[in-house]
Amino acid sequence: MMSTFHIIFFTIITLFSCLTYVSSQSYDYPTANLSTLWITGHGTFIKDNRLRDSPNARIILRRQRTSYSTYACCFYCDDPCDSYLFAVLILRVEDSGDGLFTSNSSSPRIVWSANRNNPVGINSTLELTGEGDLVLRDGDGTLAWSTNTAGRSVARLSLTETGNLVLLDANSSVVWQSSDHPTDCLVPGQILKAGTNLTEKEGLYSVLMTEKGLVASIQSDPPQVYYQNLAFDKKRSKQASYAKFQNGSLDLYITKVEPKSPDISITIPKTTSPQYMKLGNDGHLRVVRLDEITFEWNEVADIFREHLVDGCGEYGICSNEQCSCPSGSSFRPINDRQLNQVKSLDGVGHIKKSFLAEVQSIGSIHHINLVRLIGFCAEKSHRLLVYAYMCNGSLERWIYCKSLDKMLEWNCRRKIILDIAKGLAYLHEDSLCLQSDPEKRPSMSMVVKTLEGVSSVQKDIDYNLLISQIPQLSPTDTTTLLPSLLSGPR
User: Fold this and answer.
1) Which H/E stretch holds residue 300?
2) How many angstroms separate the CA atoms of 140 and 417, rounded?
3) Tens digits of per-residue pLDDT, 306-343?
4) Is the Cβ–Cβ distance between 473 and 485 less than 8 Å?
5) Rounded to 5 degrees, what are φ and ψ at 185?
6) pTM over 0.85
7) Does an H or E element contain 91, and which?
8) 427 to each of 368, 382, 430, 438, how far by Cα in Å?
9) How is 5-55 classified by DSSP, letter by letter?
């Protein structure tokens, strides 16, 4: 028979285990049932009064990942929090000292969102309807997003250990899952199936998993590939090809499937820390990790680093160690407020090494009467200069207009002439041509040729000239201006 001591000891251990289980479960609420409604706004649906929301995240479902990180399905907003995304985040959590858990110490990272390009406002709602549809509506009732799963026997909504948001039926079979609709991120354990892709927020770069392997491209017309990792062996499986983000690798299963080894494995540093892989708006596919000591997010790998290099320009790509330019149609509006216009300099001779330095120099010039150069691309003898968009088009269109009703009046023409003169004066006197040594001041024709990419800027030009080094003349000074003080046409 058991002694009284053993009975008491067993009872205490059992009670402690139960309390530990209940406590750990109280901070996880990964499921929701049908006919549940959530509304944006502070404190409207905090499930556990011991868990503080992030200031920008209103938590709906939560699944603990490690002792200091969690996946959370939530409404997320950026300050001043007047628009929201329905998203899945990686949050850092910690005991704040008063028994309350908070995620304020490290910025949340979005790894999936339903309405990335269509945020909703205050008093918006998310509803898991009685028919099994997950519906996001704006504050005025407008439909923003839906899983379109009504009538498909959905029983509940769940957030898995890998951050996958799923709709399950009564048998726990998946009816819909967020991992089938990725945005720009992958998390460990997530699969990118053939035919699905990652697309960065602006829509210019895309990473597609095909039946042959992984392909990254710029979304021009036609798309221009800047990275591919393919396998051409005979397929041994009827299952579709897929990529899988593992701890330590990005594995491509093309001719075979797990548990067999992958056809291609791209090595990534292993870790026990939270991490995710994201396609950036510069086309790079980076692995980002939460440091266990500093609790800061740091880049630890860049899969496309060798295929997108600075030497090809902001709008250029690198393929087979060669720079290339996407077609002009790829320079479409980046957003509703920013348009670009492209000038082609094809046929002006081979690219010189000084071209990159020249463009960087010219690109740093800002003046109200000069169109801003915001980017470039260089490929062999081809050059593209990307300028800020001018809504009225080319000046030539208005000066040499044949239609009398569009003819510019003299006052308007006079203003144009003066503004051009001010822009040229800035270039000639206040920018490139501002040199203490008169012999180093280029002529106006050389300035124009430099802007067009035909000529090079002198290598020994002084970009650090101080204003105090320039001779100053008072309004009443009648001293004759000598050639050494001027940089006129020559």
Assistant:
1) strand 297-302
2) 51
3) 766 544 555 566 655 566 665 554 444 444 445 667 77
4) no
5) -130, 155
6) no
7) strand 85-92
8) 12, 25, 6, 16
9) HHHHHHHHHHHHHHHHHHHHHHT-B-EEESSEEEESSTTSS-S-TTBPPPT
